[in-house]
Amino acid sequence: MTDSAKQLRLLLVDDHLLVRRGLASLLDDESDLTVVAEAGSGEEAIALAAEHQPDVVILDLRLRDMSGIEVAAELKDHRILMLSSFMQEEDVRRAFEAGILGYLSKDKNSDELLNAIRAVGEGQQYLPPEISLLLAKSEWSAHLTDRELEILQWIARGRANKQIGEELTLSENTVKNHVKSILSKLNAKDRTHAVTEALKRGLFQLGPG
User: Does the pLDDT value for residue 5 go beyond 60?
Assistant: First the structure.
């Protein structure tokens, strides 16, 4: 790709110079990616984001002057990929609450990093399996009961409330109440949205039929 208008413009934020230089070297080898600025602190990142308006901000969780979560909250109108060595559930949950789109461990290979950057650049949420698992265990990803998860799996298979009731020996009205609870907990507008949200958050996986 040679048309610079189609490139994703990146802002790198990390307080370790060698990390930034290594990332910049890797990313500049990609024809659809270009690093427009590098920041070594949170304040510098906020200023450079305003100046350059990057498509994606690649942000470290720990900075010398403020946390990456604080920076993400300031840059909530930007698409942010958090790149960190820290994978604690609380950090991950708070980062997504601050508005990031993706979270990736620094020990991932370059292919996964590039995939994450491109996904976030398209406005997609990027959740590796281990991050989905962390969020599934957190309050951010609403706790569904075992029965609700069971019903959600039947919904994913295209079953109506009456059919689910027959499968689980429940009344249709009981199933309906469970479905309402599922929609509320997942903040989903309909059954399909609920399944999509649950899959995205790693609450269950689609099985056969």
Answer: no
Return all residues near 185 (Cβ < 8 A) that are at least 6 apart: 142, 143, 144, 148
- Domains of the chain plus CATH, in order, are 4-136 (3.40.50.2300), 142-200 (1.10.10.10)
Residue carrying structure tokens 């984001």: 49
Residues across the chain = 209
Cβ atoms of residues 52 and 38 within 8 Å: no
Helix (H) or strand (E) holding 132: helix 129-136
Q: What is the C-alpha to C-alpha distance for residues 29 and 209, in angstroms, rounded to an integer?
A: 44
pTM across the whole model: 0.65
Residue 74: how many other CB atoms lie within 10 Å: 17
Residue type, 25: S
Q: How far apart are CA 75 and CA 53, in angstroms?
A: 10
- CB-based contact 71:39 (threshold 8 Å): no
Q: Kindly report, residue by residue over 176-192, the tens digit of the pLDDT.
A: 999 998 988 888 889 99
